[in-house]
Design brief:
single chain, HTH_DTXR, Diphtheria Toxin Repressor, domain 2, mainly alpha, DNA binding, binds manganese (II) ion, 2 domains, metal-binding, DNA-binding, Arc Repressor Mutant, subunit A
Length: about 140
């Protein structure tokens, strides 16, 4: 299993390749706010663990294993954003909160949160009812 830090890299590389078609060391460094030398170091490790193939002057591509996990990591991030949005977390907190929790939940918990999101999506009245409950609580404070 990749470590939290490896997960961040695989996730960003997957997103970059999805949106631009390639992922350069400098783009990855920008996306993660880290030094390019840290990226090179991690990319070599990810290459060794067969998540990607890295060639110094030709760039990098994800292996089938890297793509599969990248896709799951992006799904997990998006799902958690959706979840926090449904439960009424303020927009400005959502991204950072997801970055903070995403690596620390089991796939079991992720799947159950997935059920809950589906439950709310199936009937918009449910989200509305939760919102009303929240507003009632707020008016009591
Ligand atoms: Mn993320």
């Amino acid at each position: 299993m990749p470590t939290p830090s490896m997960e961040d890299y695989i996730e960003q590389i997957y997103l970059l390749i999805e949106s631009k078609g390639y992922a350069r060391v400098s783009d990855i460094a920008d996306a993660l706010s880290v030094h390019p030398s840290s990226v090179t170091k991690m990319v070599k490790k990810l290459d060794k663990d067969e998540y990607l193939n890295y060639e110094k002057y030709r760039g990098l591509i994800l292996t089938a294993k890297g793509k599969k996990i990248g896709k799951r990591l992006v799904y997990r991030h998006d799902l958690l954003e959706q979840f926090l949005e449904i439960i009424g977390v303020d927009k400005e907190n959502i991204y950072d909160d997801v970055e903070g929790i995403e690596h620390h939940l089991s796939w079991n918990s992720i799947d159950r949160i997935g059920d809950l999101v589906q439950y709310f999506e199936a009937d918009k009245k449910r989200e509305q009812a939760l919102k009303e409950l929240r507003e009632k609580q707020l008016s009591k404070e």
